[in-house]
Amino acid sequence: MFTRLGRLAVRRRRAVLAVSLLFVALAGVLGTGVFGRLSGGGFDDPRSESTRVRAVLEQEFGTGEPNLVLLVDAATSAPVADGVSAVDDPAVEAAAAEVFAALEERDDVAEVVSYWSLGKVPPLRSTDGTAAMIVARIAGDEDAVDAATVEITDELVGERGPVTVSAAGRGPVFQQVSETIQGDLATAEAIAVPVTMLLLVLVFGGLVAAALPLTVGVVAVLGTFFTLFVVTQFTDVSIFSINLVTALGLGLAIDYSLFIVSRFREELARGRSVDEAVVRTVETAGRTVAVSAVTVAVSLSALLVFPLYFLRSFAYAGIGVTLVSLVASVLTLPAVLAMLGTRVDALRIPGLGRRTAASAGDGFWHRLSLAVMRRPIVVGAAAIGLLVLLGLPFLRVEFGTPDQRVLPADNPARIATDRLRSDFASAEAAAFPVVATRGGAATDEVVAAHAEALAALDGVARVDAPTGRYTDGTLLIGPDPSLAAFRTEDMVRFNVVPDIEPVSEAGEQLVAELRAVRTEGLGPQLVGGASAALVDSKAAIGDRLPLAAGIIAGATFVLLFLMFGSVLVPLKAIVLNLLSLSATFGAMVWIFQDGHLSDFFGFTATGMTDTTTPILMFCIAFGLSMDYEVFLLSRIKEEHDRTGDNTASVALGLERTGRIVTAAAALLAITFVAFSTSGISFIKLFGVGLTLAVLMDATLVRGLLVPAFMRLAGEANWWAPAPMRRIHERFGFSESEPPEVPAPASPSVLESPSPAEGAVALQNREVAGNATPADDASSGEGAGQSSADAPTDSAGRSAPEVVHH
What we know:
Shape: elongated
Strand order of the largest sheet: 10-9-8-11-7-12
Helix content: 55-70%
Largest sheet: 6 strands, antiparallel
CATH architecture of the largest domain: Up-down Bundle
Number of helices: 24
Oligomer: single chain
CATH class of the largest domain: Mainly Alpha
CATH topology of the largest domain: Multidrug efflux transporter AcrB transmembrane fold
């Protein structure tokens, strides 16, 4: 298959490039339209109890949870005196009435009440009497809420005569989150692209070769925008997934292109013709890239099992960007290389890209691996101990959902929403809606008994019911006209106002206690609200987490077994990846949940970790780590098959992959670390966490733990039971086929090297390591033997290499 792909890229290079350019043009025109179709929500399980409550409130009662709060601040700051406060001033009341009327006139505002419209009720007034609330519900989905929030903010927020109006609540907060992320995306690209280009120039030593991976990255990003645009025609896609497209698109495209271009330059250095080098590159490095890409895509596909479309969106984006990167790397890029030929080394930078020749065994990674394998138990135990120590903070993780504190401290929506908690005694905007069946059939005594039971719970400040308002388990005040809408023929609803932080451990406990309340004569009840949504989201993720983990572990085991024919190697890969990721998660809890380094990174610690971020990081980082695993182990296996010496093959395999894995990890980390500049705290967490995961995996795990483990396991590394060996022999990934030798009468650009070319190859293999840093790196991408090891036949031509992919 890969031989045919290589030949296609060579023989139809102009057609391949024409189709690629047409795709890029189409993706550029249509793909950028995806930004107008993305949504800012997706954090809730659509089948959960809290989501059903929202549907019941809208369908049965024509109401819902408020998503917009306008704070009206009086220009004067006179304190409350004799029951009259600054917001009771006639001028302030008149200005507030104008804002209220403007909201009432809007078709997209389904409900609106205020301190003044409800008869100046104290809960909607600040404790110092200088501000009061206008509470509204914007109808529609997240996109409709975002659009309406922008219009309302532009029209009503700001100074209005004797008052100043500011916007708070879920609608303004998440509208600002979406807007901030779009700006952060441009900032991250402005940082990552030039830094990546500089590093590529240092790695390749020339401008032309360095530009190729970046070009493939642009193709991958634009192509994925187009695929997401298509996906949005059928389902919701979260705007947050765009961050993954940019980071993973640039990272993987550069990663894969690095191996492809480096291998191509190596093949040219061996004396192959341009066309032969392209075909051989696709056969070897292309095959390895394909296996790596499939592993990443399968890992990300595990996100599809979760009901939250926020998580599923990252699967759509990640699978799309991985596959587009793969196709561009194994088809479009080889066609470009076939066009460029030896000009791939044009515009070299003096002083870069050259190093003195060295024989095998002289490299840093070779010496490091031998040192590790001399004391594998000591080194392995120390490395594992360090990873476990770093992972310990994860044992105290507390999961939560994003709120206004994910925004920068100076964001207007953040400031206004913070004031709802600090300046108002009652958490009216954070009330828990509770609905129950048998509304019309339930007597007032039954409804009152249920309201009293709810109000008696710890953490409840007040309960509103059709029969009145309750506190501390007793009736506070009888029914009023505003409570008549709390009952329909089929349903009855209660409004539970908490006196605790809703999104907290105490809030989650209150949800459990509310759901446990049962009253004879009243049907089953449903509890909603922010805390209930958090409880339901955690349950949805926890219930499906074993399935997702099973998909990732099972796919990893199968792919690595088919590649290496070993039982132990896949198990080792899974265990080491789990160790590495647990250390990353521990560091994230220590930094972001506990607040260490919060000043350095510029975020507000909430004492909680976003529920979905560890899942994302696990799926992404687990897949990415397989890139390095495949390249390293394939080279070790190749050397072991050639020499039968376990220790030497590990040392030589690490020597020939260490440079390129380190370079690839550094380039990939740049694209992730750029997101640490985001103004949104969970995007910072995403960027910093994946940066740590990539670097830790490429250095500590690959440099220390893998050699130690491989030395201790010895020949058992490649063992498999007889039945599984037979499966591998039949279905495993075989070595890449050597180029076919055409008949003498039909010479082809793809024929075997001539004797003259074979002499060049023979000369090249006599001096090991006689390559540029990138060339040397390419010999270590796990995609074939170096020129120093290429066997020759009796005629002096390069014999077909045995390469494991």
